[in-house]
TrEMBL record:
The keyword Repeat does not apply. GO terms for molecular function: monooxygenase activity. InterPro entries: ABM_dom (IPR007138), Dimeric_a/b-barrel (IPR011008). This is Antibiotic biosynthesis monooxygenase. Residues 2-95 form the ABM domain.
């Protein structure tokens, strides 16, 4: 499994646009083949900073999403609302305390 973290810094005037657009695509992203689930997380001190947290079965599954028509329909729209370039990390889990709590 691979976890993808993406930091998006939005222009303040486009925060509501982003949330509204996200609401139209979140279930499609979440249901994409290989996606184990995703979260949208907002910084409590700077509401213009948004993170996506997604878990993928394999690196190839994420790459298939990034090359998909779905991604191509989302990214150009939201990219124009960024105040800074997006930052992204693909990670592997070293320790998962959440799984211990859920058992």
């Amino acid at each position: 499994m691979m976890t993808r973290l993406v930091k998006l810094t939005l222009k303040p005037e486009h925060l509501n646009d982003f949330i509204a657009h996200f609401d139209t695509v979140k279930e499609k992203i979440n249901a994409f083949p290989g996606c184990k689930g995703m979260r949208l997380i907002q910084d409590k001190n700077n509401i213009g900073v948004i993170f996506t947290y997604s878990e993928w079965e394999t690196d190839d599954d994420l790459e298939n999403y990034r090359k998909s028509e779905l991604f191509a329909s989302i990214w150009p729209t939201v990219k124009s609302w960024f105040d800074k370039k997006a930052e992204a990390w693909s990670t592997e889990t070293y320790f998962d305390g959440f799984s211990l709590k859920n058992d």
